[in-house]
Amino acid sequence: TYPNRSMVEAQDALDLYHHSRSAGNEVLKALGLRPVPNVFWKVRDSDPHQALSFDQLHYFDGGLGGKHLLNEYKKVLSWLGRPAEATVETYVKEFPRWRNLVHFSTMIHLSFSDGNKLHDLVKVSFYAGLSVLKQSLSPEGYCILQLLSSYLKLHSWISLDVHTEHTLRMIQEELHRFDMALKSYIQAVNVSNIEGLRSDWDFPKAHLWTHAIQDIRNK
Q: Which of these, 71, 77, 97, 167, is most buried using a 10 Å CB contact count?
């Protein structure tokens, strides 16, 4: 996990840099900062770090789900061959139309940055892959479906406008299930013959949603 940052911490590091560049550089480097003051420090009685909150559009739709998990999904389909790709494409194209759900005619060759559409594509792709990414045919693909299932549940629960202790507990429990599913996927990738699958998931957008419950409580 990564510690929460604060304005005071950054200011102290910059003050140290002004007194000793070598010592200050070490502290700033550890914090991932440059020796430049933040303009928001001028706003009285505020802390820009505390103002930041979990951003589903970028962390979920344009990040973990719409980019990383969907890309893994496509890599597995490509390895399974054109028949598997064609089957999923057909299911995507024939997916029932629902209000406020974008309809897609393809998913493999799509490339865009609209987070809302990516969220819809992840939902449709999950159901389209259920009869294709079977454990007997592709352990990697089966693990991806488990990840997508947990991911979509977390997305729905975190998106609720009103939360209770019960919903927060459900989110916490599902975060644990997602973590276990991710570990299973990494194990499958480590013994996989499919090239290019991600085995290192230690990056910010795969971690940030662990702060979602804290952000919900704070706000």
A: 77
What is the value of pTM for the model shown? Answer: 0.80
* Cα distance between residue 177 and residue 130, in whole Å: 19
Length of the chain counted residue by residue: 219
Tell me if 147 sits within 8 A of 135, measured CB to CB.
no
What is d(CA 69, CA 71) in angstroms, rounded to the nearest whole number? 5
* 35 CB-near residues (< 8 Å, 6+ apart): 14, 17, 24, 25, 28
